Amino acid sequence: MGSFVISKRFNGDYKFIFASRKGKTIFTSIGCKQKDDCEQMIAGIKNSIDLFAFTKIRNAGGKYFFRLSKGGLVLANSRKYTTELRLQKGIDEIVKYVSSAETLDFSENDFIFQDEESIFSPEVEDDI
């Protein structure tokens, strides 16, 4: 089962990725001003993946990737793949698992990991 992960970019826009069962990013969405836009796109993808187009592209460096679009509007770009077969496997994984994918929201977590100082500074001084 894959998962959608919503997060914030440094410029304040929201984005989401679709990660494979193994946790590898398959595609990253365009930037959205509102988190609701991400949630609506995710719902649309989950409920109607057959309405979306996968446009396969080979870049000048010989790597393959795809663009996920609907009605001519590009909504996401995939990671780069070394072969067209691996690209197709990425698309197949989306089609197979997207409807049952969970959605994780990390957009409000500014700091997932605590500061080093707060981890190592003792709350109570020991008297020695």
UniProtKB/TrEMBL annotation:
InterPro entries: YegP-like_sf. SUPFAM superfamilies: YegP-like. This is Uncharacterized protein.
